[in-house]
Write a structure and sequence with these properties.
The protein starts with a strand and ends in a 14-residue tail after the last strand. 3% of the residues lie in helices and 45% in strands. The radius of gyration is 39 Å and the shape is elongated. The protein has 6 domains: 88 residues, Sandwich (Immunoglobulin-like); 212 residues, Green fluorescent protein (Green Fluorescent Protein), CATH 2.40.155.10; 45 residues, Ribbon (Laminin), CATH 2.10.25; 40 residues, Laminin (Ribbon); 62 residues, Laminin; 33 residues, Laminin. It has 583 residues and is an all-beta fold. The longest helix is centred in the first third of the chain and has 6 residues. The protein contains 3 helices and 43 strands. This is Hemicentin-2. Keywords: Calcium, Disulfide bond, EGF-like domain, Extracellular matrix, Glycoprotein, Immunoglobulin domain, Methylation, Repeat, Secreted, Sensory transduction, Signal.
Length: 583
């Protein structure tokens, strides 16, 4: 337009010169009313308007409107054409799929899964309702604890807050999730979940395979699920690590289920907007309908990218307090030392009773004594300590000097028993012997057809005590039980007239992992990275990241794994830098 104006043309040769003046006027026109839009809706696309910057605005688009659109603009000087492709993504409306596997030795067959979702526009939260049909009644009540069965669906369809992307937005609905679950009582469960995108009706297709054990005590229990949070951490291209602890009330008693998930999806789709995203699950309900053989779950979810205000260079909390990052916020709490925690009022610290909460490190045969800021493990009478972190060892009183018993000493776990020769009885001191005197009133005649005489067996054994009776057995017509099986201490069995140690480890499923036989007893052992629970039978994974204070290198975060831990590289996304907090 700036080239408009008067121009002079001059032509010269040997004959002379000619001069001509011309006026140049440049005109332009906006497409405006003379523009025409062609696309899938036909030669003229209704519900559109042209914005002042020349871009096209389409209203009320639907999935069927996906395709190539052509915009033709006309004016007095001619026309111009522009083409663009439009892709309308279908919003997921729920999920469906199949579930197979074995739980507590019971084959599930092929269970059918269906889920529907309802999004609240104002709050941005999503309510998910699901039903899993054809569940055997023998395991259905146990599976009420497995809200994690529908984890891929509630992650894929979670309400998005801020820059957060749910599973469908991040992966397109195609991903694989491997889940490992461990109950607080030691039972283990694994689950593989494969999402295969959306079907034409907008339902996420999901296949689930499960294998493992659920505590049988949950079958008839009143089970109430508590709110929980899952942390989705980008550990690499197309890789997420998810950790959570789901808590329940079992007949008003607390129990927990620790979950670790690994998610893989197409790396070309890119990472999460933030390194960590938090999914908050609330209003959780679970029920099993035995008549319909249906397991039903309902919960509300919301997903939000976390901003760690506590990592900012400025101190947000006053001296003596520490900053705790929360979902979308932060909080200042008292800086309580080890063995203490913030009280319910949030203003003071209180001692943690590790013995009461069973978070102590005492072994099954040790006594836990709570102390301010900690606890100590001591040995009961008849046992001695082997050192920190080791169980108590039985004291063999029979080897002590001076001799414990006058005639013969038999060592027991935590105690001993003095024996006397035939025809002698133990004195009240439990150590010396004296000859017995027979009298008619001490002779008892028994006629018994059973395998044993219950009242002849001592109900309880007092340390150093003894039981004596003169018994006269007369044969009864028929089969009389053999009475030559004399009483032996617990953990022993009589063989060839001698009490021999009973190897309890031969009994299957006595220990969750390894079993070691000891004289008169046994001991359950745990693999490295696990601790023995107070039951003395089950093992629990040790969270080294929390309990051992593992510090990973710069740009790394510590993630607990079963029996160990892993430092995972977590570089900051573009336009972000590493904060001052470790990991």
């Amino acid at each position: 337009m700036g080239d408009s104006g008067r121009y002079q043309c001059l032509a010269e040769n040997e004959m002379g010169a000619v001069e001509k003046v011309v006026v140049l006027l440049l005109q332009s026109g906006a497409p405006g009313r003379d523009s025409e839009i062609r696309g899938r809706r036909g030669p003229a696309v209704p519900g559109h308007r042209t914005l002042p910057d020349g871009s096209l605005w389409l209203e009320r688009v639907e999935t069927r409107d996906t395709g190539t659109y052509e915009c033709v603009a006309h004016n007095l000087l001619g026309s111009a054409t522009a083409r663009a492709s439009l892709v309308v993504k279908g919003e997921p409306r729920g999920g469906r799929g199949n579930m197979i596997g074995v739980i507590n030795g019971q084959e599930l067959g092929v269970a059918t899964l269906n889920a529907s979702v309802q999004q609240e526009a104002r709050s941005g939260v999503t309510t998910l309702r699901s039903s899993i049909g054809h569940i055997p009644a023998s395991v259905g009540p146990l599976m009420r604890v497995l809200v994690v069965t529908i984890a891929p669906i509630y992650w894929a369809l979670a309400g998005e807050h801020g820059d957060a992307l749910n599973g469908h937005s991040l992966t397109g609905g195609s991903f694989r999730q491997e889940s490992h679950m461990e109950f607080s009582t030691g039972e283990l469960l694994t689950m593989t979940q494969v999402a295969r995108g959306l079907d034409p009706d907008g339902l996420l297709l999901l296949d689930v395979a499960v294998h493992g054990v659920i505590p049988e005590s949950l079958a008839d229990a009143d089970l109430r699920a508590q709110d929980f949070q899952e942390d989705y951490v980008q550990t690499g291209p197309g890789q997420l690590f998810v950790g959570s602890t789901q808590r329940f009330l079992q007949d008003s008693r607390p129990m927990s289920l620790r979950c670790n998930h690994s998610i893989q999806y197409e790396a070309a789709r890119g990472p999460q907007p933030q390194l960590v995203q938090h999914l908050q699950a609330s209003a959780i309900s679970a029920a099993f309908d035995p008549a319909a053989e249906a397991l039903r779950f309902q919960l509300t979810t919301a997903l939000q990218a976390d901003v760690d205000e506590c990592a900012w260079p400025t101190d947000l909390c006053p001296e003596g307090q520490r900053c705790v990052n929360l979902l979308g916020s932060y909080r200042c709490l008292p800086d309580c030392g080890p063995g203490f925690r913030v009280a319910a009022d949030g203003a003071d610290c209180e001692d943690v009773d590790e013995c009461l909460e069973q978070s102590d490190e005492c072994h099954y045969n040790q006594i836990c004594e709570n102390t301010p800021g900690g606890h100590r493990c001591s040995c009961p009478r008849g046992y001695r300590t082997q050192g920190p972190g080791l169980p108590c060892l039985d004291i063999n009183e029979c080897l002590q000097l001076p001799r414990t018993c006058a005639f013969r000493c038999h060592n027991l776990q935590g105690s001993y028993r003095c024996l006397c020769p035939l025809g002698h009885s133990l004195l009240p001191d439990g150590k010396a012997c004296t000859p017995m005197e027979r009298s008619a009133q001490n002779v008892t005649t028994v006629s018994h057809l059973g395998r044993l005489v219950p009242w002849l067996r001592p109900r309880a054994l007092l340390p150093g005590g003894a039981y004596h009776a003169w018994v006269s057995l007369r044969p009864h017509p028929g089969t009389l039980s053999s009475m030559d099986r004399a009483w032996c201490p617990p953990g022993f069995i009589r063989q060839n007239g001698v009490c021999m140690d009973l190897d309890e480890c031969r009994v299957r499923s006595l220990c969750q992992h390894a079993c070691r036989n000891t004289e008169g007893s046994y001991r359950c052992l745990c693999p490295s990275g696990y601790r023995l629970l107070p039951s003395g039978k089950n093992c629990q994974d040790i969270n080294e990241c929390e309990e051992d204070g593992i510090e990973c290198g710069p740009g790394q975060m510590c993630f607990n794994t079963r029996g160990s831990y892993q430092c995972v590289d977590t570089p900051c996304p573009a336009t972000y830098r590493q904060g001052s907090s470790p990991g």
